[in-house]
Inverse folding.
């Protein structure tokens, strides 16, 4: 992982903790929104014990392009929504975060060991945003799991398909998919696996969650009873699947997928970049 998360919040909340840790992400240039996607908050600590947040999402959600194109971001900032723990779900703080410093240095991180990984992490020091209480986020217990995922297993992708959500409570949508490759292996040599899901614009950057309420097997291949959940990775758009070539038109800007694509000319399969 790019950063080491730590859980510093009580997960015993009335609503699902994952739902409360999700944010819509708008890529903006000036006053214009260029595209939309999903991200989620992860809590961290530094060596001196200072807590801070990071937003995890896809590279192309921040830039408008897949990483292999090597282009600068289309926009100059992203807009986020952050929930304070213990409050009403529709009580959010809206934050605008620049993608570059004044000197032109990127304010977000990518994977050095896997430059083609469609992943990005945006550090958000808690001191830069005024909170009455710490915000909801995911922690180490979500990635340090003992579940063994398997092909055909149902997983949840939590985000904003076509920007759709509960507008009153400002909560995301849960969609169901199934693991479509051997998740313990790296698909095509990259740290990812496949899921079979009807993906839509706006879902890119969503967390992929495995949850068990019944019998499952741990990494020692021993049976365990349910009540366990795990962050398996980050969902990436179906449109990025099999073609690294640049399209003739830059149709990404309306929602992080090529506008010329249709559901009939690509498989309903997406990448999950491993947590």
């Amino acid at each position: 992982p790019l950063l080491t998360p730590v859980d510093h919040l009580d997960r015993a909340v009335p609503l699902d903790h994952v739902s409360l840790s999700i944010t819509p992400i708008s890529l903006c240039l000036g006053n214009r929104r260029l595209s939309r996607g999903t991200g989620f908050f992860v809590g961290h600590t530094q060596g001196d014990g200072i807590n801070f947040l990071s937003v995890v999402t896809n590279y192309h959600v921040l830039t408008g392009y897949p990483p292999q194109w090597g282009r600068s971001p289309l926009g100059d900032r992203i807009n986020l929504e952050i929930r304070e723990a213990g409050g009403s779900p529709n009580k959010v703080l809206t934050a605008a975060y620049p993608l570059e410093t004044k000197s032109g240095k990127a304010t977000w991180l990518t994977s050095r060991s896997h430059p083609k990984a469609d992943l990005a992490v945006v550090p958000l020091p808690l001191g830069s945003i005024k909170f009455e209480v710490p915000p909801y986020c995911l922690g180490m217990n979500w990635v340090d799991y003992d579940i063994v995922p398997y092909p055909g297993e149902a997983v949840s992708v939590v985000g904003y398909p076509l920007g759709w959500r509960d507008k009153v409570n400002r909560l995301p949508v849960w969609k169901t998919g199934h693991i479509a490759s051997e998740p313990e292996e790296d698909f095509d040599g990259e740290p990812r696996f496949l899921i079979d899901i009807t993906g839509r614009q706006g879902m890119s950057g969503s967390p992929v969650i495995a949850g068990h309420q019944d019998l499952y097997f741990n990494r020692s291949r021993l049976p365990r009873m349910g009540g366990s959940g795990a962050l398996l990775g980050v969902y990436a758009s179906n449109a990025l699947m099999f073609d690294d070539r640049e399209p003739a038109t830059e149709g990404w800007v309306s929602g992080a997928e090529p506008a010329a694509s249709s559901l009939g000319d690509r498989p309903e399969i997406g990448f999950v970049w491993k947590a």
